[in-house]
Amino acid sequence: VRAGRKVMRFLSKTGHLEITHPNGTGFSCDLVGRAAGMDDGIVTKDDLDVGENMANIPAGETFVVPDEKSGDGTIVFDRPIPYLGRWIRDVRIAFDGGKLTKFSASENEDFLRSDWEEAKGPRNLLGYLDIGLNPKARSGFLQDAIVAGNVYVAVGANDEVPGGKNKTDFYLGASLTGATVT
């Protein structure tokens, strides 16, 4: 919780955020002073007062909705995405001028492509960012976002995240292990 509060203060500021990784990831976006959130597994009175009435177990992540139109650069995710009983592997996304301009995957890209082509609404905008905090969690099915040191980036729909207003039926989110966030 202490580490999460520190990260929340950082993510709640106005500024420029960069994510880098030796695998070719070089991505940036703008933080616009939106309040960051934290899932610590506990629902407090303060959480209820702002409309948050759910927690995950296991828990351990902070999240923020940056300026949805500010993404630039490339992210090469090193964790696969579980999707309809299959793995989508080696997902690479590229932003230019605040918009997702291309994506690829080495396995099962056709599932993403199909969702992309059928989507309505602004599908090409940055959704939100998560930073994992849980030192006991290990990467695996649906836990990647909470693993300490992992960065989770979502594209598309973010209207269910506090501060998010992007309504679309496209969503793509994945994790990157061991990235540097500045």
Describe this structure in words.
- The protein is mostly beta strands.
- It has helices at 2-11, 45-49, 109-118, and strands at residues 14-20, 26-32, 37-39, 61-64, 72-76, 81-83, 86-88, 92-96, 99-104, 126-132, 151-156, 171-176, 180-181.
- Strands 9-8-5-2-1-13 form a 6-stranded antiparallel sheet, with no helix packed on it. Strands 3-4-10-11-12 form a 5-stranded antiparallel sheet, with helices on one face.
- The chain is globular and about 45 Å long.
| Rough outline | globular
Helix content: 10-25%
The Cα radius of gyration reads 15 Å
The strands making up the biggest β-sheet line up spatially as 9-8-5-2-1-13
| Gap from first CA to last CA | 20 Å
Number of helical runs? Answer: 3
The pLDDT mean sits at 93
Strand elements, count:
13
* Category by helix and strand content: mainly beta
How large is the share of residues in beta strands? 35-45%
**Helix-strand pattern:** HEEEHEEEEEEHEEEE
Q: What about the largest sheet?
A: 6 strands, antiparallel
Q: Would you identify the regions where 5 or more consecutive residues have pLDDT less than 50?
A: none
